[in-house]
Amino acid sequence: MGKGKMWQRRVTRRSFIKTLCAAGIASASTGLIPRLSRAAKRDYILIGHPTPATGPIAPFGETSTWVDERITKEINNRGGIYLKELGKRLPIRIKSMDTESNPTKAAQVASKLILQDKVDLMVVAHTPDTVNPVGATCERYEVPCISSVAPIEPWLTGGPYEWTFHFFWSLGDIITVFTGMWHEFEDSTNKVVGGFWPNDPDGTVWAKEFTKKLNEMGYKVVDVGRFPYGMQDFSSFISTWKREKVEILTGVPIPPDSPPSGRPSSFLRPWRPSAVTCPWASLRRYGGHHCTPSSHPSRVTVQRISLMLGAKRLADNGRNPWALTMEPMR
Questions:
Q1: Which of these, 97, 133, 129, 90, lies nearest to 113 by C-alpha position?
Q2: Which of 4, 81, 120, 163 has the fewest CB atoms within 10 Å, i.e. is most exposed?
Q3: Cβ atoms < 10 Å from Cβ of 206
Q4: Using one digit for the tens of pLDDT, what is the confidence trace for 57-74?
Q5: Contacts with 50 (C-beta within 8 Å, 6 or more apart), sequence order
Q6: Bridge-partner residues for 240, per DSSP?
């Protein structure tokens, strides 16, 4: 099947569950006889799920309980996951633990799930701050791990990997998406881009890759440097962007710091860039935070990254949670 046709396929509930089951089989069947024996003895597969339920990236983990319950129900209704070595299907159970949005805590949680709870498989998502330390812990103890919702390049900084199976888009993909949106109004901008990248694994790699690729595409990038979570005063950044005549603002700050609905919104009012493109701002929208007219630039383009959050909202409103679309923030 060609790449184009593959991406045109509709994602259905059946195909999603089938893919998840296949991933579980692939991870749980790579010669892990001790874990298979343990799972057979207790007659179920125990899956560990570290997730940021609290802290600054908690909006990512908002759907974790809903997803765990739904996936458990769907898979077990199908008889569980078939393990070839045992010649039978086993139901799954998922144990979720809060990472508190802290990489050190994420590693500790993963260790507890492995050493005390004896999980057979780890599933983890939501930014390199969560994914990388959990993956590293799984590598240390040789426990299979399925990870996602962290771009490939920042995820690779935590490698090498032998036990972690990762799926998500690359930064090349997201640069294509962002510049594709900017192309729609390129005649009305000077192609000067302000970088708003935090001091974390995401920000460090995004800054490097975006600067390189955007320069190659004819954009000028004004990078003000990495900044810590919860920074209160962005006035020096705004001054630099205004002085350098920045008309497009992009970055990957965590939800509480995301413009135009985060802390920088008040500073954006006297400076109206033509576009602001930040992927996590939509998570603030779902949490009840909205852009106000006074903080809107001319165009706000936001990619909805959290598909599970969108699915949960659809289900909460009695709609098909698998009928997901990408839409701009309004």
A1: 97
A2: 4
A3: 25
A4: 888 888 888 889 999 999
A5: 96, 97, 99, 106, 109, 110, 113, 122, 124, 130, 134
A6: none
